């Protein structure tokens, strides 16, 4: 059946794909691959390329890396119309997204355009924080403790308040203010309760030790910090 | 290699297992299956039973359904010592857990006992809220909005504050105060922004409509509410 399928591909290790995702990938006629930069490799494509059928059409598409939905809108609209055309021609069209498609993904904007226009199916993926916590044998949250998942786009004061107000926290998009965040965690003696990981499950994975000097001028975009104050490293 | 493997099996649909989980399941000598009640079926076992080797030893274990870690402790210690024994005899021992092992799972208590005593590997699983959001084509959180994952064990006033203070919320363990939570969501006109789902991906799945009367005396233990104030149903 012709439909649009958004597929969460997990954080990097192809074995973290679900059986459902692999089955869907193998049945696609067209795969839309998002690129954040005009030139560059697609991390998402690397994860799935072993599971695609040979004659699949791979369509790389550029999505501007901007926060503002209005700014993204023209690109989303153009790509959505193209996808709609392929669906109406009877194709099965997939879109791959790192991690989980329903959490901070560009896929959400495509979904808004396409949901009531063509058949849409979305398949969940393992979120980076979940893979890191399991991979490093460290709980995200236990018992009655809430888990606060926080994208660090705002001011460091706001990030500090979140870190002080909660016991179990996932800090996402930390690359913009990485040095300030590490300094803040040190000030509050939270480094022994923090996991800091870049590119989890990929060839260039880095797990930072709390005692590292963190003179990292360019920290990877794919860096996550997990804090669990109830768990000593 | 002899080791203890904690496996997140996702919320119910066996196809939401990861490739890594399936591979691990197929190599197990012994599988520890947790039961919340002394008699009853194991939801986790139903998910994985198609992927086990024929001569695997399945060991059902009762874990008391209590919140208090101290109360759970004797049961955890006994089972941990038994697991340690099997590992020392050279067996590969698995433990299955619904959803993700690092989020509100009994597995975390076993991990605390066993981590520095035997080799431990943990495999992440799709969390129920992630599967529900994708399955119903509804984002969990977008852009700069934090996601607050909240286990509803406390008072309704505390749950109400969480719901009013945040835009994207997952309410877990809602079964104890289900009617009060629904009444509170209605009071704040939040029903059109709420997904209410029981037993997602299982035979007895129920997706509640916002206009339902909710005269459900016994709501399932596996019920989740996802609220996204930026998304109209």
UniProtKB/TrEMBL annotation, chains A, B:
One of its GO terms (biological process) is methylation. The gene is cobI. The keyword Zinc does not apply. Pathway: Cofactor biosynthesis; adenosylcobalamin biosynthesis. This is Precorrin-2 C(20)-methyltransferase. Residues 4-209 form the Tetrapyrrole methylase domain. CDD domains: Precorrin_2_C20_MT (cd11645). InterPro entries: 4pyrrol_Mease, 4pyrrol_Methylase_sf, 4pyrrole_Mease_sub1, 4pyrrole_Mease_sub2, CobI/CbiL, CobI/CbiL/CobIJ_dom. Keywords: Cobalamin biosynthesis, Methyltransferase, S-adenosyl-L-methionine, Transferase. Belongs to the precorrin methyltransferase family. Pfam families: TP_methylase (PF00590). One of its GO terms (molecular function) is precorrin-2 C20-methyltransferase activity. PANTHER family: COBALT-PRECORRIN-2 C(20)-METHYLTRANSFERASE.
């Amino acid at each position: 059946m012709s439909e649009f399928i958004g597929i969460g591909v997990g954080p990097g290790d192809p074995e973290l794909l679900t059986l459902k995702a692999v089955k869907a990938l193998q049945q696609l006629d067209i795969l839309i691959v998002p690129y954040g930069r005009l030139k560059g490799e697609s991390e998402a494509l690397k994860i799935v390329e072993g599971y695609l059928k040979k004659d699949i059409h791979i369509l790389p598409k550029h999505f501007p890396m901007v926060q503002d939905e209005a700014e993204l809108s023209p690109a989303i609209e153009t790509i959505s119309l193209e996808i709609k055309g392929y669906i109406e021609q009877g194709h099965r069209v997939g879109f791959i997204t790192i991690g989980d498609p329903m959490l901070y993904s560009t896929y959400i904007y495509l979904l808004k355009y396409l949901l009531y226009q063509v058949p849409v199916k979305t398949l969940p993926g393992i979120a980076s924080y979940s893979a890191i916590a399991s991979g490093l044998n460290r709980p995200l949250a236990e018992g009655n403790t809430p888990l606060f998942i926080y994208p660090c786009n705002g001011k460091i004061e706001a990030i500090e308040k979140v870190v002080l107000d909660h016991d179990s926290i996932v800090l996402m998009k930390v690359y913009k203010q990485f040095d300030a965040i590490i300094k803040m965690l040190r000030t509050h003696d939270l480094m022994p309760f923090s996991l800091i990981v870049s590119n989890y499950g990929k060839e260039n994975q880095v797990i930072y030790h709390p005692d590292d000097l963190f003179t990292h001028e360019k920290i990877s975009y794919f860096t996550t910090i997990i804090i669990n104050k109830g768990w000593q490293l």
